[in-house]
Amino acid sequence: MSHSAHSSAADDHSQSPLEALEAARDRFDQAQQRIDAQGEETVEQAATAYRNATTLLERYVDRATGTGRENFKAYVELEGQFATLVENLPDDLRQREAFEDALDAIDKRRLSESDFETAHAKLEPAERYDDLLTEREDAREELENARTAAGARLREIDDELADHERLLELANADLDAPVERLREPLEAYNDAIREAVETYRLEASAREVFALLERSRWYPFINYEQPPEDLRTYVTDDPAGEYTIPELLEYAEYSRSKLDHYVDDADLLKRRVATQRTYLDNIDAEALLLEWPPGPAGELRQRVREYRPFVERIAGEEGVVALRNVRALIDDPDIDYDRLQTAAQAVAQLTPEERKRLASGQIADELEALREERAQLEAALEVDDPV
Question: Which residue of 76, 147, 149, 342 sits 20 to 30 Å from the alpha carbon of 194, by its own alpha carbon?
Answer without folding.
Answer: 342
